[in-house]
Write a structure and sequence with these properties.
This is UPF0215 protein K8N75_02730. Belongs to the UPF0215 family. InterPro entries: Endo_dU. Pfam families: Endo_dU. By secondary structure, the protein is α+β, with helices and mostly antiparallel strands. The chain has one domain: archaeoglobus fulgidus dsm 4304 superfamily (archaeoglobus fulgidus dsm 4304 fold, 2-Layer Sandwich). It contains six helices and nine strands. The strands form two sheets. Strands 3-2-1-4-7-9-8 form a seven-stranded mixed sheet. Strands 5-6 form a two-stranded antiparallel ribbon. Helix 1 packs parallel to helix 2. The longest helix is centred in the last third of the chain and has 15 residues. It is globular and about 45 Å long.
Length: 202
Amino acid sequence: MKKRNEKKKFRIIKKEIRILGVDDSPVPSHTKDEVLLVGTVFRAGSWLDGVLSTYIHGDGTDATNKITEMVKNSRNLGQLGVIMLDGITFGGFNLVNIRQIFESTGVPVIVIMRRTPNFDRIKKALQRFEDFEDRWSNVLEAGEVYKVNNSESVCMQIHGIEREDAEDIVKLSTTRSAIPEPLRVAHIIAAGIINGESKGRA
């Protein structure tokens, strides 16, 4: 029996692999307020099966636990092939530890970014927090940044999955924009709920 913290290997990526894409809503002007997180359950990039939601604190430290709880409490848990996150910062500077999410849920994690992060800028921004070391450790835990060459290139970080498999999943789920469909739709839903109407791109 495989341990939960071992990398998951997909010999063949199923065309209807279940992906949970997670994005946050626009951050309120007072970042201590709660920020909405929306998760969309997609069959690859073509079929929406469900929507999950939870709340985190702006600039808080609860994003990892809240996403983990949302996943573990979902009836979709047993079917999920991968969790896909729009970056590792939610609600301002509420950072996610992708290793902890994988180890707690048993579901591999793929982080998607439009471009390579500026780690110097991120580190400087985090230094204003008293728990800087803890927040910065989440950035380090996310690991190496890989480029995915698709119709439009994006970057990714991964945990619990082989790079080649993660690339295949990203390409399979990218059907209508540069961003995988589970994340694009999560962004639209979250922005629409908070602003009354969605605008801008994920």
